[in-house]
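Page 42, continued from yesterday. The earlier attempt failed because a stray header line got pasted into the input along with the sequence. Redoing it now with the clean sequence only.
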Amino acid sequence: MTYLPSIDTIPAYGAHGRLVNAIVETPCGSQNKFRFHPETGMFELGSVLPAGHTFPFEFGFIPSTRGEDGDPLDVLILMDAPTFAGCRVCVRIIGILEATQRGKKNKVERNDRIIAVAQNSHRHQRVKNLKDLGKTLVAERFPPPLIALAPLCSSGSDRSTLNRRSAYCPTCTWTRNREFNPR
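This time it went through. Structure tokens are written below.
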């Protein structure tokens, strides 16, 4: 019997290092919220949105990462059409939506959402940062505060330490609305 590797062991960065692997948990247009369950390797129904509400974008996570809440980093993916739970999509990161949530013991904790564009998207192929989306889309879909990111660096370093504060590789840093600065 052949065993497939677990989704949560897929590397954060794609083969070329400038794109990030994202795993779709909930497709655009779905009223159901799915979540990956690492212990079983399956996607399960997490909750159902109220009538009339659906996910406006693909919602998922970046494998082999951990956020402050202990879960993989969340990602909103802009693309041309919905996919399915478990679909791997190569994406370009264009920004971060700062967010908080109530965690364990009702404690408020950070749970930011990375905003990314599917590499193979025709509609968003020219989008390199949040400014390229246009004011209307950003105002309608992304409440403040947003953090604009410059394109990923090409330092060539080990990029296995993807997280919110290291600008996605150990040799770079990012600051709000500024270019990456090598350390």
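Notes: Helices lie at 135-141.
Reminder to self: strip header lines before submitting.
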